[in-house]
Every structure is written in structure tokens, then in C-alpha cells.
Design brief:
alpha+beta; 5-stranded mixed sheet; 21% helix; globular
Length: 130
């Protein structure tokens, strides 16, 4: 096995999730295919990213899954979005309404700030140190 292709992110609604990931984060829509039962196979990936790991946006199918929307990692940062220009992407995301939980920090491993997606999942925007 050579890579992780997809990571599932449970969402409340496909279209609101797509609006956030495409419009606010700048992701590309890779696939959006109906599955015949009302569910869809929806994959997004950071814009311009090679065929690396993508997110499978999976609508919660029942109350148990719905209760986990936004809390899939127990309140910890669970997702890491790398950038080659932290200041540019932080400014663009802030202008698009992304909620950052802290001011940017400059750590030995790079420039970083924690933000929340539309459901409250925590992400790092990270420009790794050279």
C-alpha cells in the first residue's frame, strides 16, 4: 500500500459542505455522483493538489452519525492543511469567513493557526518550515 486515498468527513448536508470547502477553503470538487439511494459520493481535494489524499464528504445517515458531526476527533485538531504561502492563504480564508481560533504562530516546525470548519472540526493551516 502506497498512500491513503480518502478520509471520510461526516457532514450534515452535502451542498452546505461543498460551499464551505470549495468557496471558503478553495478546494476542488473531484467527484459528486448520486448513489441511487439519496446519498452521494462527494470527494474534494485542495486546489491544485496532486492525486493525494482527498476528503469524502459523507452525509450523516442516522442520529448516531449526526451526533458526531463536528466532533469526529474529540475536539482535537484532526486535519492539517499545508500551504506554500501561509500569509496569502490565511488572509484569503479570513476574508471568506473562515473562523480562526488563534492568531498565527511561528513554531520551529512552521507557521500555523488553528481554524474550524463549518461544523466545528478543528484544522491546522500550516506552512511547514523549510
Amino acid at each position: 500500500m502506497s498512500s491513503i486515498a480518502l478520509v471520510t468527513l461526516v457532514v450534515r448536508d452535502y451542498d452546505e459542505a461543498l460551499a464551505f470547502y470549495i468557496d471558503a477553503l478553495g478546494f476542488d470538487l473531484v467527484e459528486d455522483t448520486g448513489r441511487g439511494d439519496g446519498s452521494r459520493w462527494v470527494v474534494v481535494r485542495p486546489a491544485g493538489s496532486p492525486a493525494g489524499t482527498g476528503l469524502l464528504l459523507a452525509r450523516a445517515a442516522d442520529g448516531d452519525q449526526e451526533s458526531r458531526v463536528g466532533a469526529q476527533t474529540g475536539g482535537r485538531v484532526g486535519f492539517f492543511l499545508h500551504t506554500d504561502d501561509f500569509a496569502r492563504d490565511h488572509a484569503r480564508m479570513t476574508a471568506a469567513g473562515v473562523r480562526f481560533l488563534e492568531e498565527p504562530r511561528h513554531e520551529p516546525y512552521g507557521s500555523v493557526a488553528v481554524f474550524e470548519d463549518l461544523y466545528g472540526n478543528r484544522w491546522d493551516l500550516l506552512q511547514p518550515a523549510a
